[in-house]
Amino acid sequence: MKSDSETKNLIAELAKWSQKKTIAQIWWRDDDVSHPTSKLDWMLKTIDSLEFKPLLAAIPNLSSRELAKALETCGLPIAVHGLSHLNYEPADSRKSEFGLSRKFYDVKQDLIQAKTQLSNIFGDSVVDCFVPPWNRFREDIIPYLPELGFSGFSSFGRKSSKAHESNLKWFNTHVDVIDWRNTRHFIGRNAIISQITDNLRHQRTRSGTSEPVGILTHHLNMIESDWEELRNIFIVLKKNNAVRFVDPLELFH
Q1: What share of the chain is helix, strand, coil (3-state, %, to 5)?
Q2: pLDDT at residue 206 in the model
Q3: I need a labelling partner for 8 at 20 to 30 A (CA). Which of 51, 66, 107, 200 fits?
Q4: Is 87 exposed, middle or buried (0-12, 13-18, 19+ CB in 10 A)?
Q5: What pLDDT, on a 0 to 100 scale, did the predictor assign at position 51?
Q6: What one-character DSSP code corresponds to residue 62?
């Protein structure tokens, strides 16, 4: 991978981690897993070449035994990504499958069904982690997640204040490789590296305990060349002694 200003900034930031004798932890989540496709194959090829495992957030009502068969030799952990990935909010509101427009009882029943259904398909590959569609959810459900079978939670960006009130293993993603507001396509190498660097700088300079920086992909919105670019970024990180790739099972098992 050629050297450029963004890569140099990333390497310079990691050098500061080395000076502090600390390790920057990176983890990866891929959302909207549902069917075996060529786009899924491109991601699996990238995983094999890197030996870097993502957490796959699968949609129970769209998943099948065929998908389970395609993934059975990969050893990848599966998280519950909603039930059907349907929006129940009004047209003028932000999309959510588990928002305030729904009855609390219905939300709880869907979560129970989602966990059971996904476990029936993927068996022991399913981890007790809930990933809300669109990374949005009603916060009053959080205290009830353990009794519904969930010990882990993952969304995007800064943690909710409720995270500190729960006993959930809560690890968010921070770098989304898709531009959802405009093109709905891959944001490109420079933008990804810049966001990784910014998040690492924030982790290093803020007070308190650091958390792994999460990379979020949506393989259905990516083409083969996108994976080559992302793979090259991961290689830069992997070669750096200040970086450790974190297996999702360390976080959510």
Answers
A1: 45, 15, 40
A2: 84
A3: 51
A4: middle
A5: 87
A6: G
Residue 150, CA distances (Å) to 79, 100, 143 in order:
10, 20, 10
Which residue has 């030996």 as its token pair?
51
| CA pair distance 242, 239, nearest whole angstrom | 9
CB–CB of 50/231 below 8 Å? yes
Range of the domain at 25: 5-252
Amino acid, single-letter form, for residue 226: D
Cα–Cα–Cα angle for 223, 225, 226, rounded to 5 degrees: 65
Indicate which CATH number applies to the domain containing 178. Answer: 3.20.20.370
pLDDT along the chain (253 residues), means of 10: 82 96 97 97 96 96 96 96 97 96 97 98 97 96 95 92 81 97 96 97 80 97 98 97 97 93
d(CA 102, CA 152): 23
| C-alpha separations of 163 from 147, 152, 213 in Å | 16, 11, 17
What pLDDT, on a 0 to 100 scale, did the predictor assign at position 157? Answer: 93
Q: pTM for the whole thing?
A: 0.95
User: What is the total count of domains within the chain?
Assistant: 1
- Identity of the amino acid at 52: F
Chain-centroid distance, C-alpha 64: 21
Please report the pLDDT score of residue 209 as a whole number: 63
Contact 210, 249 (CB under 8 A): no
25 phi, psi to nearest 5 deg = -100, 135
Residue that the structure tokens 């909710």 belong to: 160
**Gap between the Cα atoms of 72 and 122, Å rounded:** 8
Question: What does R_g of the chain's alpha carbons equal in angstroms?
Answer: 18
